[in-house]
């Protein structure tokens, strides 16, 4: 049985996180944000669950 995953393209990630393209890629390089997944020769996307986990970790960190 396959577990279907949802992929988010960069405009959706920007909309969901409120972050700019440059800050997303800077944090990917610094390992503070989920890395994109190659979905084609010149296409990348982010796993929706990884973005949701990142958002939850930000919420949890703000409560500490």
Automatic annotation (TrEMBL):
<dbReference type="Pfam" id="PF05930">
    <property type="entry name" value="Phage_AlpA"/>
</dbReference>
<protein>
    <recommendedName>
        <fullName>AlpA family transcriptional regulator</fullName>
    </recommendedName>
</protein>
<dbReference type="InterPro" id="IPR052931">
    <property type="entry name" value="Prophage_regulatory_activator"/>
</dbReference>
<dbReference type="InterPro" id="IPR010260">
    <property type="entry name" value="AlpA"/>
</dbReference>
């Amino acid at each position: 049985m396959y577990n279907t995953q949802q992929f988010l393209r960069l405009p959706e990630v920007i909309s969901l996180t409120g972050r700019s393209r440059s800050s997303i890629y800077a944090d990917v390089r610094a390992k503070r944000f989920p890395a994109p997944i190659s979905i084609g020769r010149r296409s990348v996307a982010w796993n929706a669950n990884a973005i949701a986990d990142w958002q939850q970790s930000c919420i949890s960190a703000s409560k500490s």
